[in-house]
Design goal:
By secondary structure, the protein is α+β, with helices and mostly antiparallel strands. 22% of the residues lie in helices and 33% in strands. It folds into 2 domains: 86 residues, Pseudouridine synthase; 133 residues, Pseudouridine synthase (2-Layer Sandwich). The chain has 6 helices and 15 strands. Strands 1, 4, 5, 6, 9, 12, 13, 14 and 15 form a 9-stranded mixed sheet that branches. The chain has a two-stranded antiparallel sheet with strand order 2-3. Strand 10 and strand 11 form a beta hairpin. The termini are close together.
Length: 233
């Protein structure tokens, strides 16, 4: 019997198009009458939160903590992440992924497979990265994506990140598959932008899946619906 009041670490496979907030709310609603939340003949509110946002167009591992385990959310967020996905070379979008339509096209005829491998290798190590305008970065009390959707432009500050591995797993021009391990705060969408620039072209992210956070693995995760079916009431 899980005890969501004292705290559980829940591994969720976030579905495509869901926000991280939606996944948390799905569990919060589904668990609100769980026996572990019944104290002195009254159900208490479930304390719950996630350890690291995934964009709606990303899938994969979302770690959700309940009860007293919410105190270790920051520790989980600080751990190394692993992602797999696909970049599209020769075109950019305002948000660096498929949330917005393509805004510019670029030549790719000059790009060789060796250039792609060499560029990826050069990304490994500590670096300064500028987050996407369409991101959850806080700008004077507002989210950057809210300002962007209003048509406002703000200059986001570059932040220190580190890529530990950047493996090119397949090339089907103009698509490039990858596996990246990185530090907290890394935006894979920004890597798409920067890879395009490094290749004297443009690029955007078309697929992204988070496969690991520290020692937690996607293969051990369940969809929100599957997880709720396993709960004993």
């Amino acid at each position: 019997m899980q005890n969501f009041y004292t705290g559980e670490i829940i591994l969720i496979d976030k579905p495509l198009t869901w926000t991280s907030f939606q996944a948390v709310n799905k569990l919060k609603h589904g668990l609100k009458k769980h026996p572990s939340l019944l104290l002195e003949d009254k159900f208490v509110n479930l304390k719950i939160g996630h350890a690291g946002t995934l964009d709606p167009l990303a899938t994969g591992l979302l770690i959700i903590c309940s009860g007293k385990k919410t105190k270790i959310i920051s520790q989980i967020q600080d751990q190394q992440k692993e992602y797999t996905g696909t970049f599209f070379l020769g075109a950019t979008t305002p948000c660096f992924d498929l949330e917005k339509l393509i805004d510019h096209m670029y030549p790719t005829e000059h790009i060789t497979e060796q250039m792609i491998f060499d560029a990826a290798k050069n990304f490994v190590g500590p670096q300064m990265q500028t987050p996407p305008m369409y991101s959850a970065v806080n700008v004077n009390g507002a989210r950057a994506y809210d300002l962007a959707r209003k048509g406002e432009t703000v200059e986001l500050k570059a932040k220190s990140i580190e890529l530990y591995e950047f493996e090119i797993t397949a090339i089907r021009m103009p698509e490039v598959d990858f596996r990246i391990t990185c530090s907290k705060g890394t935006y894979i969408r920004s890597i798409a932008r920067d890879l395009g620039l490094a290749l004297n072209s443009g690029a955007h992210l078309t697929k992204l899946c988070r496969t690991k956070i520290g020692d937690f693995k996607l293969e051990d995760a369940l969809s929100p619906e599957e997880f709720l079916k396993t709960i004993v009431f």
